[in-house]
Design a protein that fits this description.
- By secondary structure, this protein is an all-alpha fold.
- It has one domain (2-80).
- 72% of the residues lie in helices and 0% in strands.
- Helix 1 packs across helix 2.
- The termini are far apart.
Length: 88
């Protein structure tokens, strides 16, 4: 059951992060962004707080750090995306 909750929360966090930075991702991409963002957020939180919070996704601070990690991931994806050329 906890894996299902993690997938749902990851999808929500990934969706919010993608929308905040101007990307329109599908459900699967949002879930992947949220889950990878959670790992990035866990790493970043350890850098800033010095603590080991293994289950970040199941607390308010965990959702915050997951969102931060997802925003970092989406920003990296935006930087790697090729600029579009307007064809008239």
């Amino acid at each position: 059951m906890s894996i299902l909750v993690a997938i749902i929360l990851g999808g929500l966090v990934g969706y919010v992060a993608a929308r905040l930075l101007g990307r329109n991702e599908g459900v699967l991409a949002s879930i992947i962004i949220g889950i990878i963002g959670s790992f990035i957020g866990s790493f970043v939180s350890r850098l800033f707080t010095g603590g080991d919070q293994s289950l970040l996704a199941f607390s308010v601070s965990g959702l915050f750090w997951s969102l931060i990690g997802s925003l970092v991931l989406v920003a990296i994806l935006n930087a790697l995306r090729k600029p579009r050329r307007n064809v008239i």
